[in-house]
Amino acid sequence: MNEEDYIVKFYKEPGRDLVILNLADVQFNDLFDLFGNRNMTVETIKRLVERVKPDLITLTGDQVWGFRTKSSLRFLCRLMDGFGVPWAPVLGNHDCSGRADKEYTAAHYRKSELCLFRNGPKGLFGCGNYVVNIMLPARGAEAERIVHSCFFFDSGAKAEYMVRGEGGVREKITAYDNVKYNQISWYRAMLGEFKRINGGKMPPSSIFLHIPILQYASAYELWRAGGFDPAMGFG
């Protein structure tokens, strides 16, 4: 697979901040929507786009949910393309829980006019592992360069874990999935490659995904054990 199949170049205007609007858990459903009102969700998104005026819109999972999701997916793609702004989604744990599996969902994203979604390298966990590199165009003798790398990861849906239960007995549970080691290795490798391309300067990077990495849970437990100390964090 060529790099072009999972690396997107997104050029920013020199001297102007790039504005990204992120939407999470839009949760469109064929039968009923969050709070039973799709219009509320649509109008909220429209107001946000109008107010923020983003250069790029990202969606971090659970764009649709429920058993019957195909028409909701098509509705979402029409809505997002209608803003005239490039958009980049990742899959959440609900997106492919209905009749629209990952292949169906990925195909609809790819054929949407302004969607930057890519399936990603073969061999990596999931579908939709790709990079949007924010680029400054070449100027004079200066070559183009990466100013920020946005990584998009499929964080899965459900997974089985072995945990230590009552009396220290290990037992199997089903819980939310998470990013896998081969995705992390790919992330590190890509950053190394981008540093090389960038003349030895590592570009800063951000990760867009649905299920937080496990370290968030560890940080929360430390915060709780410390008596919810505001100096350690908040939220």
- Report the uncertain regions: none
Look at the helices and sheets and give the structural class. alpha/beta
Query: Radius of gyration over alpha carbons?
Result: 20 Å
Number of helices: 5
**In what range is the share of β-strand residues?**
15-25%
The main β sheet shows up as: 4 strands, mixed
Q: Sketch the topology as an H/E string, one letter per element.
A: EEHEHEHEEEEHEH
Topology:
Elements: E1 7-11, E2 20-23, H1 38-52, E3 56-60, H2 70-81, E4 87-90, H3 102-111, E5 130-136, E6 145-152, E7 158-164, E8 170-176, H4 181-197, E9 205-208, H5 214-225
Parallel strand pairs: 1-5, 2-3, 3-4, 6-9
Antiparallel strand pairs: 5-6, 7-8
